[in-house]
Each structure stands twice: as structure tokens, then as C-alpha cells.
Design goal:
Two copies of one chain form a homodimer. By secondary structure, chain A is of the alpha/beta class. Chain A folds into two domains: 66 residues, Hypothetical PUA domain-like, domain 1 (Ribosomal Protein L25, Chain P), CATH 2.40.240.20; 158 residues, Alpha/beta knot. The first copy, chain A, is 31% helix and 27% strand. The first copy, chain A, has six helices and twelve strands. In chain A, the strands form two sheets. In chain A, strands 1-4-5-6-3-2 form a six-stranded mixed sheet. In chain A, helix 2 crosses helix 3, helix 2 runs parallel beside helix 6 and helix 4 runs parallel beside helix 5. The longest helix of chain A has 15 residues. At the A-B interface, helix 2 and helix 6 of A face helix 2 and helix 6 of B.
Chain lengths: 235, 235
């Protein structure tokens, strides 16, 4: 946690917050914070600043806070991911939030196991928890928008063309395709497939919606690694 | 597992292997392989090719194999990492192997917790296990060399200048430094710090050994994410 993320419910006055639960434990056990210390804080969805620790005991922590700094810019990207397996999903959500992706679509694909859609990690509270961890890691305050799309075809036919309009549309796909471009100067819509890749029909449908296949070398990367590698290359 | 990695001990004839244990279970439970099927195989440290499944039962699997393809090229990089916390170490080892890093130095730093050096995940067999998982993921056969350096100063003073000679030496470090270069055309020596970063003394010593500080934006990334992002940007 490189940023203590605060929410409206934490405030007991305009410049005072009281923390309990996970953030309190983190202050005590990981940060080993002491009264008088100054910590980086951020207001969820708002500015960042500093908090001075006024009181810390086993029940709660109280901080005096001020905000004076905007959060870092997001990347100009909409990321489409074939729904990863539950364990990977949690890490990918953190990575996506940490790297500054403002919008993520979790999409079905032929090679997504049906059971993946049953995971409790897809519940809004569980998604939010991982995103918060990513924001705290990277020092950002703005939650990405997460869109969950259980049906590939209607999404790609009806919604994707509009989402991808006026962007550079790319599908990460192994094979004899151009290399993923570097340091692009425009917004991007990027689709990354499941383990085993998109099936040809899906690549075709994504292409019809404006997304061109690109490859990232002959090595097959885990989804989480592919996400960070592709974003770092693009921006 | 996108590649079935074979070792000398698996061979019962020049073109026959018998598998048990983890790889057998993977064939049965994840791959759900069937007799007659052809699978991608690789010889640890050697070539890649195909294996035809001759027999599969609860005790073992037998394959007929042939090798006709070199493994993918490695990246021209030596990676220095401040020793990550044990859980992260395991994932980083997989990522390093998957992305094609040929040489990794795990180094001490002021901000590496002393307890991290006690982890059983640093034992050679445990390191090897994670590297193999990374190679199987990415379809590579060649294990990276892992150098474990518990003392920062002697390594950086006595060994690093030689390791970094004739390479572009870089230290990932947040702050007012040039951005990490892109698409470099020469070998690189890249050092990535611990959670909380290198201390100024360490950055200074790394600079004396020929490594220049570069930054990767204002977001603070987990080590694993920073590794894949920096490598993707550099190569």
C-alpha cells in the first residue's frame, strides 16, 4: 500500500478521517506507523495529498488530511480481456488498476471455461477490492470501469464498434501478424485472448469491429504478463 | 503448460520417454490428452519438437518424440533484482523464464527484509521448479542462470562492472530521471529495486558500476509488473 485510499464514509470532519479494519491493520502491521507521522493519502475518485496520524490504537486510527494533487493520468486505452481463470482474474484486476487502464471489458470466448463465470471474484464487491489494491499500489484514486460481458457475439457486433470508434483497434494474437506497435500517439482498443488464444471466428469478428491482429513474439505469456508487456510497449 | 519439457532421465530410448508425476497429471487432468495425440515437446537445454502419445494410464505416459526446432532467442539482458518477498519471488522467477531473460541476479538491498533470505523458495530445487513452469508457459527449453548475491557492496563493486561492460546499464528508479529507453539495439544490464526502491547510496554505487537511473512514470508497480513492463519497453 503506497497510498492510503479514503472514502466518504471515513470522514468525521472535513479534514479528519477514522480508519478501522484492513487499513488500520496495514498501518499497524506493515507500515508500523507512529503518531505524528505523515502518510500519502488519496480520496477515492478525487485528489491525493497527505495525512498526519493523530491517534493510533487497536480499535482505530485517526488522521488529519489535506488534498492538493491530482491523481496520475490514465492510459488512453480500453482493454478487452477474455475472462481469465479466477486466481488470475484477481491479479489482472490489480495490474489493470495499477497500470492506469480506465476501462476493462471482461469478455466471454470459446476457450474460456464455463466454470470461470461462476467465481465469486466476479461479484462487484470482490472486483472493487482488487481494484483498490491496485490503486493503492500505484498511487491512483480513480477506479477503472469494469464491464462484464458474458456473450461474445452481441457485444462484439453491437457494442464494440462504437467503443473502438476513433481508436487504434488491436487484437493480441500469436501468428504471422505485424508486431504490436510501440509508443502510439492515439487512443487504443486492445483485446487479449484466453489461454490458448482466440479462435479464428473470434479474431474475424473482432476484426469486423475494427480490431487488427498483432503479435508479441513467439513466447506465450500468461495473461497478466501479456497485459503489462503490451501496455508498456504501446504507451 | 504449452510445452512438455523433457529431461535426460525421462528417456527409455533415443525417441521414447516415460512420464510420471506432475507432467503425467497435467496430461490427464488439464490437457485431457488422448492416445495418438501429438503434443509440443522440448528437451531441457535443447531443441523443441513433437511427441506422439503412445500410452497413457494412471501410472505413466509414454511418448514417441522428435526434435527439429531451436528454442526461441533469449533477450540480450542481465537482470538484477533486489530480492522480492518469497511469494513474489516465485512469480518473478516464472516471468523471468517466460520472457526469455538469460541471466538473473537476486541481490540484497537496504530495503530487502532480512527474513526474505530465509525462504525455502531460494533453494536451487525450488528456483528450478519455478523456472521450469515459466519455460513450459512460454515454450522455451533453456533455463536462465540465477545468481544469488546476499551482499550488495562486494557484488556491485567487484562483479557488476564486468557483467555490465559493453552493455547499456540502467537502474529503474522513480524520480526526476530520463524515461526508460525503448526498442534498444544493444545488450542491457537492468537493475530493479525492492518495494520502496533503492536507497540513494545504492543508486550511487550502481551508477559507479555503469548503471544510469531511468524512470517508468509516476505509478509504482509491483516488481513482477515492472519486470514485464520494462522488458517489453526495452526490447
Amino acid at each position: 500500500m503506497n497510498l492510503l485510499l479514503l472514502e466518504a464514509a471515513d470522514f468525521v470532519a472535513a479534514d479528519r478521517v477514522i480508519l478501522t479494519g484492513r487499513r488500520l491493520r496495514h498501518l499497524q502491521e506493515v507500515h508500523r506507523a507512529e503518531v505524528g507521522e505523515t502518510l500519502r493519502v488519496g480520496l477515492l475518485g478525487g485528489e491525493m495529498g497527505e495525512g498526519r496520524l493523530l491517534r493510533l490504537d487497536t480499535a482505530s486510527a485517526e488522521l488529519q488530511v489535506r488534498f492538493d494533487q491530482p491523481p496520475p493520468a490514465k492510459l488512453p486505452v480500453t482493454l478487452l480481456l477474455a475472462l481469465p481463470r479466477p486466481k488470475m482474474l484477481r491479479r489482472v484486476l490489480q495490474t489493470v488498476a495499477a497500470m492506469g487502464v480506465p476501462r476493462l471489458v471482461l469478455l466471454n470466448s470459446y476457450r474460456v471455461e464455463k466454470s470461470f463465470w461462476q467465481t465469486p471474484f466476479l461479484e462487484p464487491a470482490a472486483i472493487r477490492e482488487q481494484l483498490i489494491l491496485g490503486l493503492e499500489q500505484a498511487r491512483d484514486t480513480v477506479l477503472p470501469e469494469i464491464i462484464v460481458e458474458k456473450r461474445f457475439k452481441p457485444f462484439v457486433e453491437d457494442r464494440l464498434p462504437q467503443l473502438a470508434a476513433d481508436t487504434l483497434g488491436l487484437v493480441g494474437h500469436p501468428g504471422d501478424f505485424p508486431a504490436c506497435p510501440r509508443a502510439v500517439q492515439q487512443p487504443v482498443t486492445l483485446a487479449i485472448g484466453p489461454e490458448g488464444g482466440w479462435i479464428p471466428y473470434e479474431v474475424e469478428k473482432l476484426a469486423e469491429a475494427g480490431l487488427t491482429p498483432v503479435q508479441l513474439g513467439e513466447r506465450i505469456l500468461r495473461v497478466e504478463t501479456a497485459v503489462s508487456a503490451l501496455l508498456a510497449r504501446l504507451f
